[in-house]
What does this fold into?
Amino acid sequence: MKTEWIDIAAGRGALGGGLLVAALIVVAVLIGAFVLGVRVMRRESRRPRREEQPRMPADGPVREVRDNREPEEMPRGDERLLPHDMPAHGNSAHRTGPQQDRPRWNDGGGSFGSGGPGAH
It folds into this structure.
């Protein structure tokens, strides 16, 4: 009976020792990652000072430009077209369309969840 308790205690001690070794390995890996991170940060160039930051242009902020373009016709044929097969390699010339107003909902229309009747 006494030897059974010793075997159980020895098994628990080995398990506890194994957990302690695993915990020490995890801590060593975390410390190593921290040291490596510090070394990498020291090799990076310094952060720009306040006076070195980009400035806003004198004529104000740059705004987004929206325009509706003319559709470009797709060449018709029997074979599949890849971008490099397109005229001008898929880069079409910028042709502004005649209608520059964005399409809007008709009066009484709504979007999902608005409770409106939607499309007529």
Remarks:
- Residues 88 and 97 are 20 Å apart (CA to CA).
